[in-house]
Amino acid sequence: xxxxxxxxxxxxxxxxxxxxxAVFPRSEGFEAVVRAAxxxxxxxxxxxxxxxxxxxALRRAGFVDVEVRPHVKAGGPGSGVFRWxxxxxxxxxxxxxxxxxxxxxxxALFLSDWVAREADPDALFFSPMVVEVSARRxx
Length: 139
Known about the structure:
The chain has 139 residues and is α+β, with helices and mostly antiparallel strands. The protein has helices spanning 28-43, 50-60, 80-98, 104-119; strands at 10-17, 22-24, 64-71, 74-75, 124-126, 129-136. Helix 1 (28-43) crosses helix 3, helix 1 crosses helix 4 and helix 3 packs antiparallel against helix 4.
């Protein structure tokens, strides 16, 4: 990548860091579906923590001014982020079970736990951290 940028050119990427994703009150079912999602990414050749390794790789490649900025979304049952994650995991939990990444019992626990969280006005969801990594090619 270093050779494809003009001198002084910027390289910016955003990717998830899967640490921090959580729902409160805690839920064993939610934790199971998160583990399954991470396994799903890994099975497809993905890396749920690539953003944590990117700064060092950029420095080794000769980039300068490497910066890391985390962004986290959070919200309760009425928020868009809460509704998004519920729909995402409801849909994908079927695929996780079909691929053997979580059991049908874990899926049922997740679904029942999530319904309870949706009805709890004090429930909170914290998204995986979106990490923005930027660097510059030296002049």
